[in-house]
Amino acid sequence: MKMLFAVLCMAGISLTALPASAADGRAAISSRIESARMVLTEIMDTPDQAIPNFLMQQAKCVAVFPSLKKAAFLLGGEYGQGVVTCRTGHGWSAPAFVQITGGSFGFQIGGQSTDLVLVAVNDRGFQDLLKNKFKIGGDASAAAGPVGRNASASTDWKMNAELLTYSRAKGLFAGVDLTGAMVNQNVGATRTFYGTAYPFDQLLKGQVAVPADAAPFVRTVAKYFAAANK
After folding, report:
1. CB atoms within 10 A of CB 208
2. Angle (nearest 5°) at CA 69 between 1 and 60
3. What is the DSSP letter of 77?
4. Cα angle at 12 between 178 and 69, to 5 degrees?
5. Rounded to whole angstroms, how far apart are CA atoms 157 and 141?
6. What's the domain range around 124?
7. What are the 10-residue block averages of pLDDT along the chain, 230 residues in total?
């Protein structure tokens, strides 16, 4: 019995590590960018479940993780691949590619996939996202974000949070506690998509041109940002 348990543990660890080592081709990465665009569009086109206007006005960076899934049946870890763009002096940046890993975030057990959205709401959050790797709730303070296009500002998150965190499962979009999750740059995806492994900060500071197949995602972020300021 002990031997069986040890084997299952090793299998669980292997399954958890597998997605992080799997290399996606450029077509798969482009598909992920499009999925991120669709997630953001669907959320923002539902006013009573959208990210509030006052947050879009202040957003420094927006990261979208479409279809986060359980990484291992035994250990209960979560794993997701995401796309992030940041505000620059001349619009929104070319996307960088990120991964999120961690223990159970309270999502539904089973095969349910979950979309995640992270919004950096101040300059400290922006700097945290420029790091190669950071821990939510540790290196970057975080709070479950308010929902509703016309929701009013809350002094609680404004004083303490660098990142606001959201999840969407079965159509429901709401703030979520992601404390303990690790976010890091996906260097392999960056190299595959751009042909070179640009540094994280070079991409998110707008020093790299937006590729044609990433433009719809960047335009979608810019659209809602601009709309929030009208």
Report:
1. 18
2. 140
3. -
4. 40
5. 10
6. 2-228
7. 38 40 77 95 86 85 82 53 93 94 55 81 82 85 80 57 84 83 92 94 94 96 74
Task: Report the candidate in 114, 105, 118 with the shortest Cα–Cα distance to residue 80.
Answer: 114
| Interacting residues of 150 by C-beta distance below 8 A, sequence separation 6+ | 47, 52, 53
Q: Give the DSSP per-residue string, 2-68.
A: HHHHHHHHHHHHHHHHHHHHPPPPHHHHHHHHHHHHHHHHHHHTSGGGSPPHHHHHH-SEEEEEEEE
Token reading at 173: 């979009």
Beta strands (DSSP E) in the chain are 61-70, 78-88, 91-92, 96-102, 114-120, 133-135, 142-144, 163-169, 172-175, 182-185
The total of structural domains in the chain comes to: 1
| pTM of structure | 0.82
